[in-house]
Give the backbone structure.
Amino acid sequence: MTHAIEAGPRALLRADTSFGLLLALLLAALVLRIGGLAVSHAELFFDEAQYWAWAQDPAFGYYTKPPLIAWLIGASTSLCGDSPACVRLPAPLMHFATALLVYAVAARLFDRRVAFWSSLIYAIMPGTSISATLMSTDVPLLFFWTLGLFAIVLHVERPSLAAGALFGLAVGLGLNAKYAMAFLLVCFLLYAASTREARHLLKHPGTWLAVLIAALLIAPNVWWNMEHSFATFSHTRDNAGAWGSRFPNFLGVLEFIGIQAAIIGPVPFVAFVLTVLGAGGKVAAGPKRLLLFHSLSVFLAIIGQALLHKANGNWAATGFPAAVILAVAAMLALEWRRGMIATLWISAVALVAVSFAGALAGTLTSGPAGRELGKMVGWGDLAANVRRIAETSGIRTVVFPQRGLTASMIYELRDSGLDVKAWRADPDHPLDHFELTRPWGAADAGPVLFVTMGEAPPPEPLAARATLLELFPTQVFIARRAGAVASAYRID
């Protein structure tokens, strides 16, 4: 009895770290997340609605992203329907699978104990809990990035064509999720070039096979871009040009670093930083070096971007699989028992709170959580008003001037019989996928219902043909700065 009482935090780090126990814990987190999706009242955010709309038209590419997210949503909704929960279902499932890959990487580099805690902490850390409630391109990206990291570990341990093929498969499929996957190849090449023991990998046939397989897997998307005037690349270029320079954006850098600490949790963040500074305990030098090249490189690249322009908190997401493993290895080496307990408590609370936060959408309206949940309410009510006005006016085509608004209305009006179009101001230069695939311009015939946010008139080329039908209130996120009203115009 005395030993049991005395154990306390010490027992935590000596507890059973069997794979069976880990699997049970990961499955419990998965069931909790799926349950949260089932009771959520959160409507699709407009990016999610956009991906759903893409899924209705399977292709090898879309205007702003590669195709994999649309394929995943198409597979999920074909099985269980078009509800928000079904659209988001791949997110918790893929994070579950990614956590298993984290275990595999950590087990190869360290031991079963580091692997157990790395996998568990990755699975339930605050950033993963938030990501598991939304369907974003980061979800499949993280899975294939971690699969690629596992392939790199195998290739470093014992170079082979098989390891190279797995690496190429991961990179190629990851590129079809998000082009940021290319940075994994860059990280590996930097690691191999600067590590004497791994330099021979630059010439190994397995490495070149990886490049070949990755190129073949992304080739259909490149072909799609060629057939569509390199729309995705043009979009990326236009976005970069729109940012302008904010150098030196020190506040942006501090904000970005703070978000990274919140994503992984404060204790693992400190452990990672100490390891970077060389004070991470007795972490083996070889694994530490490999993991730093595949985590710190990502963070430094995005910090540089934040210093020059801006950086969203999730842009460094791919650094976290390696960062978590390195942080856990340091925490265990330093015997941070209370730090580990604090991390588990913080993560467990975040897991439950975030998983079921969607049930409060529309009810919780104040504070940071209320503001975030507020981005995912009001779309159904807006669509109901649009449908009412269109049917009353005998109009079958509805036109929207903003990508997010168009995407959400395509989703919300999917069973209405209305034809949803995107306003395309420049016939020669579409600005998003809907302007590319379902455009409506000033030269097109009416009547159409043109819906804008706020009380602003329709675009100048339409002014002479426009009649205001109704102003009506709306709660949608993109309308708040416009006075929380929408305007419906008839364009003849």
In short: The chain is about 60% helix and 5% strand. The chain has two domains: 8-359, 379-491.
